[in-house]
């Protein structure tokens, strides 16, 4: 696969779903990828990227920003409270807001910094013990709590269980978003992004299909 192959598949999935071309943002997941691979995708003109770890993002993206305009960086991995300031300085969006303590820390720093990235609330749609995210039954209350803190909540994010049909989880996330008047849906990865687009995804997170298999750390 190449970047253009993925973009063409997204365009087709948008059309098949009766959605406008360009309604889906492709986040190229660049975590654990060598700089040369990331640079090649930047040189093709792509600008939206996703990183799991704030520390890795901090070592990679300030330099690329000096070379390339318009970079749109998304933090898509679990976020520790002590990394929030750095994440907010680096990124245009954070997709993993998942607990009140984190929301309050973001709100405090947003007041202090005078800016805040776009925020997505992570929902643990599979209710998996090992996975981050607010439980579906608690999502409405947590969304309301974040809004009460004046946080710019743009949408929801999920990572379906590996052994279940992802479409069930995409549909659940879309339902929670709709009843809370949220338009953003960060869902779908290399193996299932077309299904996610059919069910309303606005952001899909694709790594290996663009960059090749991750380089081990």
From TrEMBL:
- Protein name per its UniProtKB record: Pyridoxal phosphate homeostasis protein
**Pfam families the record matches:** Ala_racemase_N
Residue positions where N6-(pyridoxal phosphate)lysine is found in the record: 31
Q: Which family does it belong to?
A: Belongs to the pyridoxal phosphate-binding protein YggS/PROSC family.
Note the InterPro entries from the entry.
Answer: Ala_racemase_N, PLP-binding_barrel, PyrdxlP_homeostasis
Alanine racemase N-terminal domain spans which residues? 10-214
Q: Which UniProt keywords apply?
A: Pyridoxal phosphate
Superkingdom field: Bacteria
User: So what does this one do?
Assistant: Pyridoxal 5'-phosphate (PLP)-binding protein, which is involved in PLP homeostasis.
């Amino acid at each position: 696969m190449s970047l253009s192959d993925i973009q063409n598949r997204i365009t087709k999935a948008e059309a098949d779903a009766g959605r406008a071309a360009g309604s889906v943002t492709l986040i190229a997941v660049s975590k654990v990828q060598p700089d040369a691979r990331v640079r090649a995708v930047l040189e093709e003109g792509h600008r939206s990227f996703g990183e799991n770890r704030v520390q890795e993002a901090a070592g990679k993206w300030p330099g690329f920003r000096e070379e390339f305009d318009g970079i749109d960086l998304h933090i898509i991995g679990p976020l520790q409270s002590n990394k929030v300031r750095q994440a907010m300085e680096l990124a245009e969006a954070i997709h993993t807001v998942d607990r009140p303590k984190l929301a309050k820390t973001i709100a405090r720093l947003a007041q202090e910094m005078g800016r805040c990235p776009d925020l997505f609330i992570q929902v643990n749609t599979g209710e998996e013990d090992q996975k981050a995210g607010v439980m579906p039954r608690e999502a409405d209350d947590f969304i309301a709590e974040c809004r009460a803190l004046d946080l710019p909540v743009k949408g929801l994010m999920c990572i379906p269980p590996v052994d279940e049909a992802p479409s069930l989880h995409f549909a659940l996330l879309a339902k929670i978003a709709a009843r809370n008047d949220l338009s953003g849906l960060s869902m779908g990865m290399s193996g299932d992004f077309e299904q996610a687009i059919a069910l309303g995804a606005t952001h899909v997170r694709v790594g290996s299909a663009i960059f090749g298999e991750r380089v081990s750390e």
